[in-house]
Design brief:
- The protein is an alpha+beta fold.
- It has 3 domains: 1-35 and 210-284 and 542-567, 3-Layer(aba) Sandwich (D-Maltodextrin-Binding Protein, domain 2); 61-199, Dipeptide-binding Protein, domain 1; 292-535, Dipeptide-binding Protein, Domain 3 (Dipeptide-binding Protein, domain 3).
- It has 16 helices and 24 strands.
- It has helices at residues 13-18, 43-48, 106-117, 136-141, 187-190, 202-205, 253-258, 273-279, 323-331, 335-343, 373-382, 413-428, 443-450, 474-477, 491-499, 508-525; strands spanning 20-26, 64-65, 71-72, 77-82, 87-92, 150-151, 160-164, 214-220, 224-229, 242-248, 264-265, 285-291, 294-300, 303-306, 311-314, 347-349, 386-387, 394-395, 403-407, 432-435, 460-466, 528-541, 544-545, 561-562.
- Strands 12, 13, 16, 19, 20, 21 and 22 form a 7-stranded mixed beta sheet that branches.
- Helix 9 packs antiparallel against helix 11 (373-382).
- InterPro entries: Peptide/Ni-bd, SBP_5, SBP_5_dom.
- Residues 75-477 form the Solute-binding protein family domain.
- This is ABC-type oligopeptide transport system, periplasmic component.
């Protein structure tokens, strides 16, 4: 599968100007409608608002990148890392403007940090990595009103922000790192909205501003967004004059493509192997894709989040705290068969928590958890999970009955079949596993359950991470990461993640070695376990020209044109 569609037909200027580019967002729930990347917590919002950025996944983004996600000059801003002075200087281009014509300012670079670290924020982006910015920890705890480590050499309305750090890290060379935030906030436009209320404000949900090639015309709550060119955009003008993005349920997406209703599905949105099987031969479409910046995983609930210290804590006595139980549950699954049956070549069993798109860091030799029923039974027996008094089910080592609640999101019929297969495999090794709440859970209620600081509804869950383009995992598995929903924390895990960005890690060989050690350590601990890797792919209608989802295409939206006014 290629990341681009080389359509050699001539552009039809009239169709390009007068037609609407129709995009689908495959999802079984309404999108939440949070346009601001600082506050948004799910990929669906990033998808439906993506024409607000140069490229999908880069709403109001500061930087451009090369094919390996390395930051290069030429975007809304340029970045300069000074290792000696321990500073990162971000300089906006002269013609950087918001979609209402306001100038993008140095304060707009700084304000996201205030929103992320504010005590009353609803943002879930904060992690220990931000403490490298001077004054950030003090601002986060509320003992300082401003972030002392971000300065403005030519004033807040100027073009330059300097970030002063206690350390500069190799991750900072790449987009999506967890030390330097990479989008701007329209400070002037939102400054009067309390940070706690920002996510529900009309400035974020109804009339948001963007720096990308398109401006938002209308949002129909949970259903659709429509777009037209942003005349204040600094870069190449968009060729297509209208874009509409509609949510389409996973049950309807294949039919919609087969009947030529959409030009393509939003890049990065979830298209499954079952969809691929149905539509790979659709005659007016070309299948385009690359290894995904995401993976499916299983998470075990092994602790809680202490709201006072704002840290995750492992609970020694939690139901899933026994490593042998977790390993056994993973060996009991036949993920190779499940992915072969339902993945149709688009998904395959994952072997680590770093996906293969990170060629340098992914450990291709790691085994992960292939099916091994014998090993699963041995691990359970040895750890004291035994069938007692003629019971069909194993009880815990203290002899107490054990029921394992599995949390899963409502999705396609193929997913429902996968979940049943997992339950069946766990029951095969004597574990009384059931769906938490008795049925699958709607996406928003699933996440609100597992994101509670403390919960005992779900013991193990299946979910997926959509990743940033720099693989340091502190924001999802760090001690103080709010995204660490299973609450797995150990000294060694913290140390390994820290070592990925220590002074030695400027040497790539060392950095790669640490990434591989971390992958093997996480596999062995089995508190978060890979389920599958996949292609990020999209069916692209043959009237679309200039479609390229590769990381080096920094003009995704403006390179698009049409060869015809009809999708047939």
């Amino acid at each position: 599968m290629s990341a681009s569609y080389k359509n050699t037909k001539a552009t039809d200027k009239s169709a390009t100007k007068n037609s609407t580019l129709k995009l689908a967002e495959p999802n079984d729930s309404p999108f939440q409608g949070i346009s601001d990347p600082v506050l948004s917590t799910n990929a669906e919002d990033a998808d439906v608002f993506s024409p607000g950025g140069d490229t999908p996944g880069n709403i109001n983004g500061l930087f451009r990148t090369d094919a390996n996600f390395k930051i290069i000059d030429g975007g809304l801003a340029n970045q300069k890392i000074d290792r000696k002075a321990k500073t990162v200087t971000i300089t906006l281009r002269k013609n950087a403007k918001w979609s209402n014509g306001d100038k993008v300012t140095a304060k707009d670079i700084e304000y996201p940090y205030e929103v992320i670290a504010n005590k009353n924020t609803t943002s879930q982006q904060y992690s220990a990595d931000y403490n490298a910015i001077k004054g950030m920890a003090e601002y986060h705890t509320g003992s300082a009103k401003t972030i002392s480590g971000i300065t403005f050499p030519d004033g807040q309305t100027g073009r330059t922000a300097v970030i002063h750090l206690s350390k500069v890290t190799p991750a900072m060379k790449y987009s999506g790192n967890s030390f330097i935030w990479q989008s701007v906030e329209p400070y002037n436009y939102i400054k009067n909205v309390p940070i706690a209320k920002l996510a529900s404000s009309k400035q974020v949900r109804k009339d948001p501003l963007f720096t990308g090639p398109y401006k938002l015309d209308k949002v129909v709550e949970g259903e659709s967004t429509t777009w037209s060119p942003n005349k204040y955009y600094y870069g190449k003008a968009p060729q297509i004059k209208h874009i509409s993005i509609n949510v389409v349920s996973s049950n309807n997406i294949d039919k919609a493509i087969q009947s030529n209703k959409y030009d393509f599905t939003v890049p990065n949105s979830v298209m499954r192997g079952t969809d691929y099987k149905q539509i790979k031969n659709a005659k007016n479409y070309k299948m385009v894709g690359q290894a995904a910046l995401s993976y499916g995983y299983f998470g075990f609930n092994v602790g809680h989040y202490d709201t006072k210290t704002q840290k995750n804590v492992m609970d020694k006595n939690s139901k899933m705290s026994n490593k042998s139980l977790r390993q056994a549950m993973m060996y009991a699954l036949n993920l190779d068969a499940v992915n072969k049956k339902f993945g149709n070549g688009i998904t395959w069993r994952g072997n680590t928590l770093i996906p293969p798109i990170f060629k340098k860091y992914w450990d291709s030799s790691a085994k992960g958890y292939p099916l091994n029923i014998k090993k699963a039974n041995q691990l359970l027996d040895k750890a004291g999970y035994k069938k007692r008094n003629g019971s069909k089910w194993r009880s815990d080592p203290k002899g107490k009955p054990l029921t394992i609640n599995f949390g899963a999101m409502t999705g396609t019929s193929a997913q429902a079949a996968e979940y049943q297969d997992y339950l069946q495999q766990w029951r095969k090794v004597g574990l009384n596993a059931k769906l938490a709440t008795g049925k699958t859970m709607e996406m928003n209620s699933f996440y609100s359950t597992i994101q509670k600081p403390q919960q005992n509804t779900v013991d193990i869950y299946a979910a997926a991470w959509s990743l940033s383009s720099e693989p340091t995992p502190t924001q999802i598995y760090g001690e103080d990461a709010t995204y660490n929903m299973g609450h797995f924390v150990t000294k060694k895990n913290t140390q390994l993640m820290s070592d990925m960005n220590n002074e030695k890690a400027w040497n790539d060989t060392y950095r790669t070695k640490i990434f591989k050690q971390w992958q093997n350590y996480m596999n062995e601990q089995a508190a978060v376990v890979p389920d599958n890797f996949s292609y990020n792919w999209s069916p692209v209608n043959k009237r679309v020209k200039g479609f390229d989802m590769g990381a080096a295409n920094n003009n995704f939206w403006t390179n698009l044109s049409l060869t015809s006014s009809s999708m047939k």
